[in-house]
């Protein structure tokens, strides 16, 4: 299949918002997407991901803001005039139409010549490797095959933007991994621009060039997988990015970008990812893989250690996921490369650069109104 000819330079979302009655499902989404990018919208259930996607698709009118392609408003266009392809979680195939007729449907709606439709359907079937299933009905296919039909149906239209809403969440784990690779392959080989909604951080990190993390309708952070992985902007993003240990500690002293934090049987140096004052209660985020279990007699190289008792050891192939408890009863999750004995005492240490200090509150400073006033 030819790569999409119908391209653009930039897609801009400016202060896009949507409320339902008094409830703000999406607030001030600002994002510029470059052609060819793969963007993931990531966040827990109810954070506004589908709302954002449906606003883009034209299935929901905006209550605030505008959407522009190369400077021209598209949010005022009806859905079918936007020239976007949609792939939904539930596939939304026509049950009474064969696979090839499902794929042909959108092309027929565009009144394309018959030969062109035949060619594009054949290309689409080959693309998702469903040539053998062309005459079958959706009900005769597996979930993964149905999802591939839904993807083929969207991409044969050569849309300028592909929107996918949790397209893999109804598939089993193995198929989910296969289809993930498939989606990234199609994105690259067809030169698509894709906006992909998921609540699965691993899926988002592995697929996307950039991620948009949402919480309660508000953008928390936009960045590359590396940026989000290494430098989450607040504890909520850290939590989503696999910083499984989020511990409330008190700032004992501050020196430059480091601070001593203590409480719950812990006293360590950590990095100020957000500013905090002495005496303040903060959230310290540490990944299990950054908590090092010292071998008996091993020197912590000048760092303080945390004494903890091993509770539960789970074998995970290459490593062990271990739940420990500090002397003051705080659970800490660590990764170990040898099997630890439940009930034994271990010494843990962490590089201060990998223990990140965040304010407990997620509120931005200033109200929305004040921020809006400051911008204008
Ligand atoms: P997500 O896709 O991230 O799970 P949604 O965008 O579906 O979240 O929903 C965001 C919020 O908006 C939720 O609180 C949801 O209940 C609400 N919401 C979504 N659609 C509607 C609707 N049609 N009417 C009323 N509230 C809605
Ligand atoms: Mg949703």
From TrEMBL:
<dbReference type="InterPro" id="IPR008995">
    <property type="entry name" value="Mo/tungstate-bd_C_term_dom"/>
</dbReference>
<protein>
    <submittedName>
        <fullName>ABC transporter ATP-binding protein</fullName>
    </submittedName>
</protein>
<dbReference type="GO" id="GO:0140359">
    <property type="term" value="F:ABC-type transporter activity"/>
</dbReference>
<keyword id="KW-0067">ATP-binding</keyword>
<dbReference type="InterPro" id="IPR017871">
    <property type="entry name" value="ABC_transporter-like_CS"/>
</dbReference>
<dbReference type="InterPro" id="IPR050093">
    <property type="entry name" value="ABC_SmlMolc_Importer"/>
</dbReference>
<feature type="domain" description="ABC transporter">
    <location>
        <begin position="11"/>
        <end position="241"/>
    </location>
</feature>
<keyword id="KW-0547">Nucleotide-binding</keyword>
<keyword id="KW-0813">Transport</keyword>
<dbReference type="InterPro" id="IPR012340">
    <property type="entry name" value="NA-bd_OB-fold"/>
</dbReference>
<dbReference type="InterPro" id="IPR003439">
    <property type="entry name" value="ABC_transporter-like_ATP-bd"/>
</dbReference>
<dbReference type="InterPro" id="IPR027417">
    <property type="entry name" value="P-loop_NTPase"/>
</dbReference>
<dbReference type="InterPro" id="IPR013611">
    <property type="entry name" value="Transp-assoc_OB_typ2"/>
</dbReference>
<dbReference type="Pfam" id="PF00005">
    <property type="entry name" value="ABC_tran"/>
</dbReference>
<dbReference type="GO" id="GO:0043190">
    <property type="term" value="C:ATP-binding cassette (ABC) transporter complex"/>
</dbReference>
<dbReference type="GO" id="GO:0016887">
    <property type="term" value="F:ATP hydrolysis activity"/>
</dbReference>
<dbReference type="Pfam" id="PF08402">
    <property type="entry name" value="TOBE_2"/>
</dbReference>
<dbReference type="InterPro" id="IPR003593">
    <property type="entry name" value="AAA+_ATPase"/>
</dbReference>
<dbReference type="GO" id="GO:0005524">
    <property type="term" value="F:ATP binding"/>
</dbReference>
């Amino acid at each position: 299949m030819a790569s999409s000819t119908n391209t653009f330079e930039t897609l801009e979302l400016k202060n896009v918002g949507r409320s339902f009655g008094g409830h703000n499902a999406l607030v001030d989404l600002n994002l510029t997407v470059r052609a060819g990018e793969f963007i993931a919208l990531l966040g827990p259930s109810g954070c506004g991901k589908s709302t954002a996607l449906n606003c883009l698709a034209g299935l929901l009118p905006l209550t605030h803001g505008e959407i522009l392609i190369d400077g021209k408003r598209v949010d005022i266009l009806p859905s079918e005039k936007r020239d976007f392809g949609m792939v939904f979680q539930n596939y939304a195939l026509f049950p009474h139409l064969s696979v090839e007729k499902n794929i042909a449907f959108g092309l027929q709606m565009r009144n394309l010549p018959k030969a062109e439709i035949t060619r594009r359907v054949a290309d689409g079937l080959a693309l998702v490797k469903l040539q053998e299933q062309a005459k079958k009905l959706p009900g005769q296919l597996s979930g993964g095959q149905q999802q591939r039909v839904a993807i083929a149906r969207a991409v044969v239209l050569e849309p300028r933007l592909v929107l996918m809403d949790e397209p893999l969440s109804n598939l089993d784990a193995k198929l989910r991994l296969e289809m993930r690779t498939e989606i990234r392959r199609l994105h690259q080989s067809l030169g698509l621009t894709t906006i992909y909604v998921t609540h699965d951080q691993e899926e988002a990190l592995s697929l996307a060039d950039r991620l948009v993390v949402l919480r309660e309708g508000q953008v928390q952070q936009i960045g590359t997988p590396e940026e989000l992985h290494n430098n989450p902007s607040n504890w909520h993003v850290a939590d989503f990015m696999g910083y499984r240990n989020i511990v409330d500690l008190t700032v004992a002293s501050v020196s430059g970008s480091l601070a001593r934090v203590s409480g719950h049987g812990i006293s360590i140096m950590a990095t100020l990812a957000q500013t905090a004052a002495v005496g303040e209660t903060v959230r310290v985020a540490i990944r299990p893989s950054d908590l090092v279990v010292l071998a008996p007699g091993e020197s912590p190289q000048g760092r303080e250690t945390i004494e903890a008792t091993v509770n539960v050891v789970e074998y995970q192939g290459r490593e062990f996921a271990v739940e420990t408890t500090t002397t003051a009863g705080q659970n800490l999750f660590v990764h170990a490369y040898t099997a630890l004995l439940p009930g034994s005492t271990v010494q843990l240490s962490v590089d201060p650069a990998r223990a990140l200090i965040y304010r407990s509150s997620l509120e931005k400073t200033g109200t929305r109104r004040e921020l809006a006033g400051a911008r204008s």
